[in-house]
Backbone:
């Protein structure tokens, strides 16, 4: 084998230009594969950064009969207690629920942090100990015990300056006083990005089996398979269904890995689609290098024939050639590793602020390096096997004859070369169409008109904690005090309170129209987007009221239940009728005991329609309605402010006014509406750009590969072309002779590629926004582009063939 390696080094150094071209093509293919696999490994494969993370799962409930992808839904605290006490294959279980928390103290401004409410045993289940202080205990959950919190490491450093004496200090969480008992080590932000944890305190609400607001973390015992654990969990769910039919009938139990739970659905699809895309790039690179090796093997035919004549077996020849190919693959992999390092760093920087789960760290580990090594070897075999088998079939007697040309081998080589070109073109078309669809989706979002003037329009959010503002009256009192203060800020043109920023959607509700038949099925009732707003909303957003009126300060109070609807609502429900004065109500799907019955609301105004940004897979609502905030005071709202002042000055002014109403109330997510749009479109911008880069690489490789094959074909057929021209063939006929072969390959490749592109478009359907998976413009333009590039790649060799001098060709 060592002799083969030395011979391979000499062989690849002998033809340095071909080696350089091969290594460069392989580096591109292997580099993008290593880049994307590093991302896939971090997002979909690598587990939580805890000891024995392979035994950690998210447990939850699911309606039976199960339909669609497996997803662990919420579970009740009582179900946790039952599962925990009865399961034998799980060592422990703990509850958690993500929750944003308002924190305040006497040291700094109030702020909102990502947090979680957890059962007292959660960190012990995860195997995580506090850096400072103690863990939660059962005593902390007893009635009358002082509320306690655990801080995340980043919050401890940023807010408290890493003060080791922070333990025991008072902090207000959602308006309630608590004591700090611990600080977690760096990197612990369970479940996704938490920086503060509170303990779940058993109450009458947690004792309700129908209150499925918790996720369950479970750890299986040593040697227990996922199938065994799932079987036991399903049996426990069936037992509870028979014991508590009112709440647990048709309720099953499922388990997922944390990656499946938090990175499933569209995220999983887009990363797997990227891995498939770069696999196509690698196959195209392999086809290119295989063609180069095929042309090189034809030149080495006499050398190989001599080896065979001297006793070398076919396997010995194939082995030598494969060693050369694998060596080229390893060289390409070494250069590709540098490309991958740069690509991973660039992607990590691009998604640094998008809120990914904390355990996703884009680094290369042993799994990535094992993948890279395997790809290098497999790539070498993949592009090397065809040329090796081809040349090892060489007719020894024919080649050793004086002047023997091996024409049969050349014809077979040309056929193989043409086949690989067809494959390249087909794969490139599939990749280009996928990239085109993603880019078109991004452009639809990027160029979308929100329907409102976004200049000088800022938005920031507040969240009123239910512990401090449990009733609608308390929330309304807060907004009643805040609303006039916002409008009085110096330099402010208009300000309002809303649950939804125009263009970015809102809560959807099923409704009933007075005097209309109510469909028996809930899903058949008309659905609208409902946005709760303050009276200044229409002025702030410049959404004109076309008929009727907007809201007044008394709208929404008892006896004045009103709505404003948009033109789309009118067109869908009151075509040819006057909607003003008509009434609508929003019933609950399942009425809750103690909740007041839904009231009829009178339509008092009609606004122009503001289209929402397209969303993947979202169905269009039958119009929008606006509800006065006094009718439904929200717990969370956006503050819209239109001002020409510096955004920082506006933010500080709004924060002062909010805290003049409630000193513990933070203002967060401060941004302009234009920044909101950029944030909403980042997945399409980043992933669309990546697909476009992969497609561009594929296009260049395919064009170069087609050109190289056609050029080499012309070189091989120069004597034939000379004879044809000597016998009277015109330059045009010679050009067409060469072009005909290329166009046949192009047509075949495009036909196969279109079929593959259609299949890919169906996979990408759930990721596309604003366009259909079979978007005609994308398919037509991409097909035309690839046809033009491929035809141009054929045209240059064809023109060269037409300029062959018959005398020179015949003499050569």
Residues:
């Amino acid at each position: 084998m060592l002799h083969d390696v030395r011979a391979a080094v000499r062989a690849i150094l002998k033809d340095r230009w071909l080696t350089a071209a091969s290594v460069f093509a392989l580096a591109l293919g292997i580099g993008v594969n290593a880049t994307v696999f590093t991302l896939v490994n971090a997002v979909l494969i690598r587990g939580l950064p805890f000891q024995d993370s392979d035994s950690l799962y998210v447990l939850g409930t699911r309606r039976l009969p199960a339909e669609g992808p497996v997803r662990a839904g919420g579970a009740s605290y009582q179900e946790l207690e039952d599962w925990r006490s009865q399961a034998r294959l799980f060592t422990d279980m703990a509850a958690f629920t993500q929750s944003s928390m308002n924190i305040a103290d006497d040291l700094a401004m109030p702020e909102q942090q990502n947090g979680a409410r957890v059962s007292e045993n959660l960190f012990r289940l995860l195997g995580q100990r506090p850096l400072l202080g103690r863990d939660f205990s059962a005593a902390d959950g007893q009635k009358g015990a002082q509320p306690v919190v655990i801080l995340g490491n980043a919050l401890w450093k940023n807010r408290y300056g890493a003060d080791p004496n922070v333990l025991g200090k008072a902090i207000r969480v959602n308006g309630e006083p608590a004591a700090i008992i611990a600080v977690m080590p760096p990197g612990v932000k369970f479940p996704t990005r938490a920086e503060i944890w509170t303990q779940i305190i058993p109450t009458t609400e947690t004792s309700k089996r129908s209150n499925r607001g918790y996720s369950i973390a479970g750890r299986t015992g040593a040697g227990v398979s996922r199938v065994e654990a799932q079987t036991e969990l399903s049996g426990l769910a069936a037992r509870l269904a028979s014991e508590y039919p009112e709440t647990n009938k048709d309720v099953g139990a499922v388990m997922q890995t944390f990656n499946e739970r938090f990175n499933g659905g569209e995220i999983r699809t887009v990363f797997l689609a990227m891995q498939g895309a770069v696999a196509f790039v690698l196959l195209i690179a392999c086809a290119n290098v295989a063609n180069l090796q095929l042309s090189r093997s034809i030149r080495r035919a006499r050398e190989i024939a001599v080896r065979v004549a001297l006793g070398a077996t076919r396997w010995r020849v194939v082995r030598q050639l494969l060693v050369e190919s694998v060596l080229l693959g390893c060289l390409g992999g070494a250069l590709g590793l540098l490309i991958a390092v740069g690509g991973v760093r660039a992607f990590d920087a691009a998604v640094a602020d998008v809120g990914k789960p904390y355990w996703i760290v884009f680094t290369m580990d042993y799994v990535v390096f094992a993948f890279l090594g395997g790809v290098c070897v497999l790539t070498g075999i993949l592009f090397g096997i065809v040329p090796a088998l081809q040349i090892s079939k060489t007719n020894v007697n024919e080649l050793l004859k004086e002047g023997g040309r091996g024409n049969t081998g050349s014809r077979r080589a040309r056929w193989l070369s043409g086949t690989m070109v067809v494959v390249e073109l087909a794969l490139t078309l599939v990749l280009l169409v996928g990239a085109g669809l993603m880019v078109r989706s991004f452009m639809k979002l990027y160029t979308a008109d929100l329907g409102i003037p976004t200049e000088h329009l800022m938005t920031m959010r507040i969240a009123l904690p239910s512990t401090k503002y449990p009733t609608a009256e308390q929330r309304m009192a807060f907004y009643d005090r805040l609303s006039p203060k916002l409008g009085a800020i110096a330099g402010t043109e208009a300000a309002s309170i809303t649950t939804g920023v125009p263009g970015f959607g809102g809560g959807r509700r099923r409704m009933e129209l007075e005097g209309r038949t109510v469909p028996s099925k809930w899903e058949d009732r008309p659905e609208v987007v409902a946005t709760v707003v303050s009276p200044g909303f229409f002025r702030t957003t410049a959404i004109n009221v076309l008929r009727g009126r907007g809201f007044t300060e008394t709208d929404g109070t008892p006896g004045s239940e009103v709505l404003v609807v948009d033109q789309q609502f009118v067109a869908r429900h009151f075509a040819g009728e006057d909607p003003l004065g008509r009434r609508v109500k929003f019933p609950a799907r399942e009425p809750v005991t103690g909740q007041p019955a839904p009231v009829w609301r009178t339509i008092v105004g009609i606004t122009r329609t503001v289209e929402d940004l397209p969303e993947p897979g979202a169905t269009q609502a039958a119009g929008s309605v606006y509800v006065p905030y006094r009718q439904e005071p929200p717990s969370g709202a956006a503050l819209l402010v239109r001002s020409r002042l510096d955004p920082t000055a506006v933010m500080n002014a709004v924060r002062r006014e909010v805290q003049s109403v409630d000193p513990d109330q933070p203002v967060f997510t401060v941004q302009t509406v234009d920044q909101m749009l950029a944030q909403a479109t980042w997945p399409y911008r980043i992933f669309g750009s990546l697909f476009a880069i992969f497609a561009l690489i594929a296009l260049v490789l395919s064009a170069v590969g087609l050109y190289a094959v056609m050029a080499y074909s012309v070189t091989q057929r120069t004597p034939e072309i000379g004879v044809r021209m000597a016998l009277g063939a015109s330059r045009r006929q010679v050009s067409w002779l060469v072009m005909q072969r290329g166009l046949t390959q192009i047509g075949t490749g495009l036909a196969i590629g279109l079929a593959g592109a259609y299949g890919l478009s169906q996979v990408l359907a759930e990721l596309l926004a604003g366009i259909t998976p079979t978007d005609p413009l994308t398919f037509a333009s991409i097909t035309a582009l690839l046809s033009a590039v491929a035809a141009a790649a054929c045209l240059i060799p064809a023109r060269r063939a037409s300029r062959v001098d018959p005398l020179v060709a015949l003499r050569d």
Observations:
- Residues 143 and 201 are 8 Å apart (CA to CA).
- Residues 402-409 have pLDDT under 50 and may be disordered.
